[in-house]
TrEMBL record:
Matches recorded under SUPFAM superfamilies: RuBisCO, small subunit, Trimeric LpxA-like enzymes
Family, similarity comment: Belongs to the gamma-class carbonic anhydrase family.
InterPro entries linked: CA_gamma_LbH, Gamma-CA, RuBisCO_ssu_dom, RuBisCO_ssu_sf, Trimer_LpxA-like_sf
Organism the protein comes from: Acaryochloris marina (strain MBIC 11017)
The protein's name: Carbon dioxide concentrating mechanism protein CcmM
Length: 310
């Protein structure tokens, strides 16, 4: 049974049985647990398997064009509030055009600004994350205020303000990737809304066939999952190199790969452009990329495309 309209249960701290307030353009997947005084703005996407529970701490606000991805948990303590951009008091405020990605935990009191990216399994608790911040995977942000425009790397723990103040600025490529994820999820929102309507889905499918009007890098990013792209960009931020290999259908079956010329470029966007050229060059073959650390050890590997059977 979908829980999207369930009120918060009667408790010692709230007897009002508050209902979620959902903008008509937002989408909440039926498997979501959406409970209590949760306010969703326009074009918000709440993906499958999330739990957004405004019972003890409340209210929650999630701004327009923000996506809450699979498995995210949002909850709040009874005590402690943040001030939203509207000047009102909230247990959790999440701004506009922000990505809260798979399995992240946002626990109020918490404020996350506009145009932010919170990576897989990261936790934000009793903290404020300013506008345009990028938080990568498995990070912990607690009891601090992250200034606007900062970058928090994978696995980083920020629990005192001096650490937060020393964080580096997010790069243009990081923001470009965050915006790309927002656009992916806007397309998902449209797809969810009309999944059972053939007349509706036909224009969506046709819209992806206008290949010549988009830059090559945009087409590459459509082929790669958001998770793989985040992994590649994260490895580049660590200073690791990205290599590439290819195999036709026959060699792919026996695990025999051929090294390709190295990817060119110093900046992440240049590397992605180079990767696009390699994938075009080896169209029809299997292509995989891998990360090499400073000790020349292979540390990560991703299969980008499978071969076309001969």
């Amino acid at each position: 049974m979908p829980l999207r309209q369930q009120p918060s249960p009667p408790t010692p701290w709230d007897r009002g049985l508050d209902q979620p307030q959902i903008h008509e353009s937002a989408y909440v997947h039926p498997s979501t647990s959406l409970i209590g005084d949760v306010r969703l703005g326009h074009q918000v996407l709440i993906a499958p398997g999330t739990s957004i529970r405004a019972d003890e701490g409340m209210p929650f606000y999630i701004g327009g064009n923000t996506n809450i991805q699979d498995g995210v948990v949002i909850h709040g303590l009874e005590r402690g509030r943040v001030t939203g951009d509207d000047g009102e008091s909230y247990s959790v405020w999440i701004g506009e055009h922000t990505c809260i990605t798979h399995m992240a935990l946002i626990h109020g009191p918490a404020y996350i600004g506009d145009d932010c990216f919170i990576g897989f399994r990261s936790t934000v608790f009793n903290a404020k994350v300013g506008h345009r911040c990028i938080v990568m995977m498995h990070a912990l942000i607690q009891d601090v205020e992250i200034p606007p425009g900062k970058y928090v790397g994978s696995g980083v723990v920020i629990t005192n303000q001096s650490e937060a103040d020393r964080l580096p600025d997010a790069k243009t490529t990081d923001h470009r990737f965050s915006h790309h994820v927002v656009e992916i999820n806007r397309a998902l929102l449209a797809g969810y809304r009309c999944a059972d309507d053939v007349a509706c889905t036909t224009p969506l499918n046709n819209g992806h066939r206008s290949e010549t009007a988009r830059p090559q890098t945009d087409r590459l990013q459509e082929q790669l999952s958001a998770e793989v792209l985040e992994q590649i960009l994260g490895q580049l931020r660590l200073g690791n190199q990205i290599g590439i290999e290819q195999a036709d259908a026959r060699h792919f079956k026996v695990g025999s790969w051929q090294s390709c010329p190295p990817l060119e470029g110093t900046y992440p966007q240049q590397v992605l452009d180079s990767l696009n050229r390699r994938m075009t060059e080896y169209q029809g073959n299997a292509v995989r990329v891998f990360s090499i650390d400073s000790h020349k050890q292979r540390v990560m590997e991703w299969l980008l495309q499978r071969p076309i059977p001969s």
